[in-house]
Amino acid sequence: MPKDVLTFKRGGVHPEDRKFLSNKKAIEFLPVPKEVVVSLSQHLGAPAKALKAKGDSVVRGEKIGTASSFISAEVHSPVTGTIKAIQKVTLANSVKCDAYVIETDPTAEEVKWDDIDWRTKSKEELLNTIKDLGIVGMGGATFPAHVKFSITKGKVAEYLVINGVECEPYLTSDHRTMLERAEGAIEGVMIIAKVIEAKKIIVGIEKNKMDAVKHLRDVIKAKGYPITVQPLKMKYPQGDEKQLLKATTGREIPSGKLPLDIGAVVSNIGTCFAVYEACTKNKPLMERVVCVTGECIKEPKNIVAPIGTKIGELIDFCGGFKEEPDKIVSGGPMMGFAFYDLDTPIQKGTSGVISIKVENEAPQTSCISCGKCVSACPIGLMPTMMYKNISNGRYDVALNKYSLMDCKECGSCAFVCPAHIPLVHTFKYGKKMARRKK
Amino acid sequence: MRLKISSSPHFHSKNSTSSIMWNVSLALAPAAIWGVYVFGLRALLILVVSIAASVVTEYLLGLIDGERGLKQSTLSDGSAFLTGLLVGMNMSPLVPVLIPIIASAFAIGIVKWIFGGLGQNWMNPALGGRVFVFFSFTSLMSNYQMPKTLPALTGASVDAIGSATPLSYVKTSITNGLLNQSPSAIMTNGGYPTTDFAQNLAQTLHISPYAVDAFFGNIGGCIGEVSAFLLLVGGIYLCVKKIISWHIPVTFIGFFALLTWMFSGYRSGFGFASGEVLGQVFSGGLFLGAIFMATDMVTSPITKKGQVIFGLGCGFWTFLFRYFGSLPEAVSLAIILMNILTPTIDRYVVPKKFGYIKPVKEAN
After folding, report:
1. Each residue of B185-196: pLDDT tens digit?
2. CB-CB: which of A342, A371, A424 is closest to B9?
3. CATH number listed for the domain at residues A114-281
4. A338 to B361: CB separation less than 8 angstroms, yes or no
5. ipTM of this complex
6. In the beta sheet, which residues pair with residue A96?
């Protein structure tokens, strides 16, 4: 047995986890909404190409958008109904794209899913299914899964590391998935392992979820699968693939490279469940577990909701607001995006909808060079130097000397900054400006 | 409903600039109170005047800068209060009231504000103020008072010892040709007083009673520098609160102690590794400087590695200035010298980046 509890070494912060709000709440199903807004940009990469037009009727699970390039993904209708319009929407991450507005048919029959034994399928067939059913990474980055699982020639995926870390505060959707959908998720892990021909399989889970560790170990033992469940110390941003791989395998992804370059593939536990449903039931990715929580929500819940559900409906399902929130965040509070209205739909990557008050507010002062950001940065960058250079328009210095592009915007620096400087905001701006100058 | 839109993160730790500044002031409080206790109410007056001058200067300069009324003024961040407190703690209780006013005004106006205010100054403001008045009014600034916890002086020693700190007394004696005597022997022979408590403790521990008195603050000196013990308590508080890290104070004091032990014996005619360490370390404002002034975030390096270099440099210069300089003003000058080097250290000492190593194993 390896060491009991592992973690990564450099940097990291310890935000309060606040998971108690929803970690005891069993997953519930949202009644089918009257209307859903399904965008064609559910994933990282090029938006999908629309396959349907206004007025067409669609069936739940029917393909309505198709991958337009190599890094892109299929989109399926989560409901049975009619396409009312195709319109531009602005998503939480301020991406503007086309979206279907689908009116649900309340009289529609329940769609029946198949029952397939994935073991009878070859790995090419499985990979095709994953591509065809629109599976993307569900941890938040929404990288198309079939691209990740296609092992390029000459590379070997020695490790398959499953991400059950959920290091962001508040979020409990992966936690509940591991407790309530463990059997499916573990089958999904084995499917991915078959596709990428992994030799070692590790599931990384932070130790505030020891019940999930125990449950997964029981399930794995009962099935007799060669999977190690590895508890990890609590430290943000351990759920990032770089930190997770460092913690579980001790390997460091070189700057600008992918996990596959060090012989590993990382996949979120929610993705594994989606892969399982795709490969055994032929069910596309069109619904997901969303954690609707935060201090301002009356009754925080973990909800299975169709993709495209407006967040207002999710919040109503949770009894509405206890008090008016300052912010509603898509995803976790450290890396998530702030919603600007309640009609914005959820996406394949929306793991949480968090209604919070702004806490620990203080006036922004000048940088006092305390170096807290430098100690917090898990990549070993100097956020204060990048900030000063970007503020003075020296994008090339920030880029070349201080490796701005290695910053993954995890927010650890801005979280600890006593001067309350919007560091991540500055870096996003700096990256944009540096790209423009090139 | 109005929703706030901003970039991530949407979650912030409890840190803030003002909480840092007020916590440092709080950590300084025990040593300042001790100073007032042993030197009397005049010490309190000096502290109050220094703080008031510093805060008023900050406020007035804020008005000149425009757009900043009392509401938006930078007073609430607590940095002006802290600078004033440090200036006051660096004054002898006997200085004329005008001196701390000049020092505070210089610290805020010249050292800090001219360079752009909080965070932009390259020299610790309080130290800048102190050094400015020290070299302007050297004799007034070197006029010290015995703490009331020491037995009263009698006879001839009043003139020789009364207004000197132990460091300057020893230094003067050695410069005047008193060789082959350790510093504590010089002090004993000169009739420098000690407390009974120190005598007893020194006998059990086999150390010099002057070291004990210096540690607990029963020596002459500046208001805030005398009690190394209470400064250490404040320093530990700041370390526990994660406001400062151990790197600068430990390397600073440690390297100075090492050099003192190895080389300071030579000037009295002793050989290698015969220096008296404890008395030197506990006096002369070393603890105040190492824990509270050298760790000033603005003027010390950002990285831990840089901070170690900074601390070593401070220790080295303190040693040189204290034994070879003409004045025992070592700590302030050493820190200022290293302040000047801080931007250079920050430029060259950068942390090792993640993923800038060769992959553990080539994938194929």
Report:
1. 888 887 788 888
2. A424
3. 3.40.50.11540
4. no
5. 0.87
6. A90
